Amino acid sequence: MQNQTQNIHIVFSHFAKDTLRNSSGFAKNEEQIICFEDKLSIGPVGANPAEIRKRKVWLSLVLKGSARKKEIVLSVDKDLGKINSIIESTEHLEKIYLWTGDDTSEIISTARLLSMISVQDVDIFKTNFSQVAIKNRKGETFYPRSFTEVNASQVAAVASHFEPLLENDLTRWQNLWEKVNAEESVVKVLTEYRNIQFCDETHFDNYLIAKCSNKFQLAAKIIGETLVETDFAAPDWFLNWRLKELAEMKRLEFCGEMEEMVGYEVKEL
Fold first, then answer.
1. Which of 20, 198, 219, 239 sits a CA distance of 20 to 30 A from 161?
2. How much is the pTM?
3. What is the mean pLDDT of residues 5-13?
């Protein structure tokens, strides 16, 4: 970051970053957009060195054999590096805009960030997606839950629902991070009341099994349908790991090479 007073925008995927960068009137300076990539809704979380090592070891095991292993494991340190960059630049920041949606990973990432940075002299704003209503190309109204569901022409509609975070709001976010950090659950999902539910690694297993039939189907198809049914509550690489685990536990039959999701098929026993 440059040593001058500025505003920054926090987003949670490369798609969201591109959407913001391509929109009209927002964050044209590349340095103003910070993108967090690590999906904290899955796997052990934490901020101290031992917890960080534990997360990277866990991710390495889950992603064994995947071409995306290096990229995803590296995202752990990359996100922490971005937080440190924000901490070092706090005195030069005027406003922080959090484009946080109703998404478990985005919520946990936001809670961690707000627990680690010093915010006395920075105004922080967060989108209230519960109030966002957008017209699609057909003129129909839809209600996005996350910035990943909008395009560049709709950014202004989302931005009109930024709300300032007050001291009691910040305390709630910090308390949420403490709660998440204290849990050892592998899976975190958002309930219909926007509370975080803590689950074990088998949480999505029945969804995956329900998509299988008595005929072989490509794992990528099963995973894609499960993503849609669960509102993308878990990344595809995690569902791929669970599908392989189910096959290895003899709860499903498989053929092919059980590494990437396009390399094998599964069916009911």
1. 198
2. 0.93
3. 88
